[in-house]
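The records we work with from here on pair a chain with its fold. A complete example follows; check for yourself that the lines match position by position.
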Amino acid sequence: MESIEIVGLVAATLTTSSFVPQVYKAYKNKSTKDVSLTMYTVFLAGTILWLVYGVCIQSPSVILANAITSFLAILMLILKIKFK
């Protein structure tokens, strides 16, 4: 593994894990009042495109980060719809 890919994996871990507290808080409090549906919808589209890009360039860090982040964004959108 190239050393630059390690930098990518560390960056992916940090940026992806930053979404976990928001998803957890929304689930725990059963509230998404202050979460923007539009923002998460656009964000999800972006992470899916990044995922496709990562697959095309065969970058494990881009693939992993955006697969997990897309999953978290989908969870947040489900919670947003469920806890209207």
Observations:
- The two ends are 45 Å apart (CA to CA).
- The first helix runs from residue 3 to 17.
- Residues 3-82 form a domain with the Monooxygenase fold (CATH 1.20.1280.290).
